[in-house]
Amino acid sequence: MCCDVEIVGDITSVGKRKFDMTIKADGQKWSSKASQEVRNEAYARKAKENAPVAFSGQTNLHLKDFFFKVLSGSAQGILIGVLPSAVMKYIIQYSGLGTTAFGANLSAILTLFTSLIPFLIGMAVALQFKMKSLDVGVVAIATAVASGSIKWAVAPTGFVNPVTGLKSVAPANVYIASGAGDVINAMIVSAIAVFVTWLVARYLKGFGSVAIILSPIIVGGGVGLIGKSIAPYVGDITTWIGNLVETFTKLAPIPMAMLIAMAFAIIIITPVSTVGIALAISLSGIGSGAAAMGVVATTIVLLINSWKVNKPGVTVAIALGAMKGMMPSVFAKPVTMLPFLLTAAISGIPVALFNIQGTPTTAGFGYIGLVSPIQSMVKDAAVPSSVMNNFINPFVAIIAWLVIPVIAGFIAQFVFSKLLKLYTPMDFQQDL
Predict the structure, then answer these.
(1) Contact status, residue 123 vs residue 47, Cβ threshold 8 Å
(2) Which of 18, 155, 225, 391 yields a CA-CA distance of 20 to 30 A from 100?
(3) How far lies 209's CA from each of 54, 137, 141, 193, in Å?
(4) Model pTM score
(5) How many domains does the chain divide into?
(6) 378 backbone dihedrals φ, ψ, rounded to 5°
(7) Is residue 81 part of a domain?
């Protein structure tokens, strides 16, 4: 039973406080005003000690911590924007809801989430730094306007608005939401916005009483312009990386599928977002399928070990996609990554053999919402042939997505745990 302690003191002749401690059960009133004051002071001190440190000009920015917070916030923003649409896409399509006004509107809203990913990245990154609401908003809008998810152009006189049906009487800007934009550029812009906000707070006292006016204009607008100016160059780099990966998967499909699967098997257990990486480099086709299979491989290994030592809820959470929650256990003993790599390498082979493909959006999901397996089987009119040009049947899907990864997982478990004794399932014991 939890108890409160009443402290009644007096000063002895030697100048030391002598305490008479009386234990009181919860719900009982403190008998003395002095004892209440002692308790209140203790609680206030504890609250002050545990209070989060707010972002200010006095905040120390360490490179490692700064980088980690940008990555962590970006991962959160990406998942918020991508998960709803990816998970609900086929539910709406095959439940019949897609033919109703409700289903069509819900699908449109969830799809629009994707175009808000840069905004969500900026917001989540700012929250990682414990910024106040004004700064959170400024960082978010600077990231959003600079990352290509919202494009604009000048419409000539006479342009017919497709929504209202009205003709423009003069040249005007037209804004169009289009996909997630460049995720890498969004991450860069959010980092720049945080740094500029810190400089303003440190050397200009955050613009003082006129912050509500100057901060959105100078920080939001200024960083937004910087982000828009660098966007084409960042886009060229990410496109080049994506094309390079695609070229290698065509030249050497089996080795590349194995390598990509192994890479994503490790990425999914780090703070870095697999979905974010896939979107950033526009990973599609076999590369997308291999990436998703890498996520599956890690899921299988974690499930094999977790069900023996963890509560059922932990194992269920892993099956539903909470692999990153196992980071403390994995990084406490890095050798546990070896079965991830072996399982991913074996599971990557059928990706190349059966030509299992996916889109940049589905590459980092694996079993989560069954997004990746379903995408590999079902042709979507919205997905161009340049992204996916092959679809497997359900039998092949069961073999590739379930049977082979499970067998590979048990092989890896036998080799590294039973045979080489490099780890035991107890090394994966953890609460989520």
Answers:
(1) no
(2) 391
(3) 18, 17, 21, 20
(4) 0.69
(5) 3
(6) -105, 125
(7) yes
